[in-house]
Amino acid sequence: MSENKNNHSAEFDNLLREQKKLARKEKFKNDFPLYLMMLPGIIYLIANNYLPMFGILLAFKRVNYSIGIIKSPWVGLDNFEYLFKTKDAFIMIRNTIAYNAVWIIMDLIIAVFIALCMNEIAKRKIAKVIQPIICFPSMVSAVILSFLVYAFLSQSYGYLNATFFKDNPIMWYQTPKYWPFILTIVHIWQGAGQSSIIYMASIGGIDKGLYESARIDGATKWEQIRYITLPLLKPMITMMLLLSIGRIFNSDFGLFYQVPLGNGLLYETTQTIDTFVYRALMVSNNVGQSSAASVFQAVIGFFLVLFSNLLVRKINPENSLF
Predict the structure, then answer these.
(1) Nearest residue to 254 (alpha-carbon basis) of 140, 175, 171
(2) Which helix or strand (DSSP H or E) is residue 8 part of?
(3) What does the CA dihedral 142, 143, 146, 151 come to, rounded to 10 degrees?
(4) Distance of alpha carbon 299 from alpha carbon 296, whole angstroms
(5) CA 45, CA 144: separation in Å to the nearest integer?
(6) Cα(88)–Cα(93) distance, rounded to whole angstroms?
(7) CA distance 208 to 123
(8) CB 222 within 8 A of CB 307
(9) Which of 87, 40, 84, 79 is closest to 57 using CA atoms?
(10) pTM for the complete prediction?
(11) Contact status, residue 104 vs residue 249, Cβ threshold 8 Å
C-alpha cells in the first residue's frame, strides 16, 4: 500500500515538473521578442561596463607590449606611488575635490530652482521654447565649448577685453586666479539645464490634488513649494547627491583640458587627476600608472558612496539607496 502511494507521489511530482517546464518554455516563447529587443542593450552594457574591468590588471603591472599584458611583470603598488610622490599630487587632488564639492551644492540648488520655475510655466507655450534652450549647452562638445570661451576671453579679440577692458586688457589665459570662476560659470551653463530635467520629472509625478488642497486652505505659492514640493523631492535629491559624491574624485576632462586650451600657466587652478594622468600618459606613455589613477578614483568613489549612504540611512532610512 505504501509502495503504491510512493509511486503515485513520484508520478505526481514528475507531472508537476513537466508542467512547470512546459510553462517556462511557453513563457520564454512569448517573451522572446522582448529578449531580442533587450539584447543590444545587454551587449553594450557588457562591452562598455564589464569587459573593461579586466583592465584593472594594468594598474598592478609594468606593461611591456613585446611580451603582452598577461606576461608583463607585477609591480604591486608601485604605480599608485606615482600619484602621490609627484610634486603636483597635492594640487591635482585639491582641485579635483574642491571643484566637485562646490559644484555638487551649486548644481543641486540651481537645478532644483530651474525645475521649480519650469514647473510654473509648464502649461504655457513659452515652456516649449525654453526647455530646448536650457538643455542645448549640454550637447555642445568640449572642443566647440573651448572656442566659445576663447571668443569671450581672447586678449586681442575677446568680447570682454574689447567691450569692458579696452584700456587695460586682462590676460585671461595667463592668470590662474580667474579660472576657478570661469570654469564654474562654464560648468553651470553647460550642465544645469540637463540636471534639472530629473527634478522636473519628479515634480511632474507629484499628485496635483495636494496643491489643490493647499490652495483651498490658502497656502501661498512659496508655502506650496516649501511644504509639498521640496519634501517630496527629498528622496530624488538625496539619490543625486549620493551619486555625485561617488564621482567627487573624477572631473570633466573636456572642461579642464580643452577650455583652458591645455595652458601650462594655468595648472595651479586647472590641473585635476584626469588631466594630470592624460598629460603623464602622453609624455611617458606609462599605461600602468594611468590605470592606477583610474582604479584609485573608482575605489575611493565606491567607498564614499557606501559611507554617504550609511550616513543617510542612519538619519533617514527611507531616503537611502540601499
Answers:
(1) 140
(2) helix 2-45
(3) -140
(4) 5
(5) 29
(6) 9
(7) 14
(8) no
(9) 79
(10) 0.78
(11) no
| Type of residue at 152 | F
Question: Is 60 in contact with 74 (CB distance < 8 Å)?
Answer: yes
How confident is the prediction along the chain (322 residues), in pLDDT tens digits per residue?
Answer: 555 555 556 666 677 788 888 888 888 888 888 889 999 999 998 998 888 888 888 888 888 878 887 888 888 888 888 777 777 788 888 999 999 999 999 999 999 999 888 888 866 777 778 878 888 888 888 888 899 999 999 888 888 888 888 888 889 998 899 999 999 999 999 888 888 888 988 888 888 888 888 888 888 888 888 889 998 998 888 888 888 888 888 888 889 989 998 888 888 899 898 888 888 777 777 787 778 888 888 888 888 888 887 877 877 777 666 7
- Closest by Cα among 50, 16, 121, 80 to 277: 80
Quick one: which of 114, 116, 262 has its CA closest to 192?
A: 114
Cα–Cα distance between 16 and 143 in angstroms, integer?
Answer: 64
**Residue with cell string 548644481:** 107
Report how far residue 235's alpha carbon sits from residue 321's, in angstroms, rounded to the nearest whole number. Answer: 9
Q: What are the two backbone dihedrals, phi and then psi, of residue 74, each rounded to the nearest 5 degrees?
A: -75, 140
DSSP three-state, residue 74: strand
Helix extents (H) in 74-153: 78-85, 89-120, 126-135, 142-153
Residues 8, 151: Cα–Cα separation, whole Å:
86
Q: Using CA atoms, how far apart are residues 196 and 188, in angstroms rounded to an integer?
A: 11
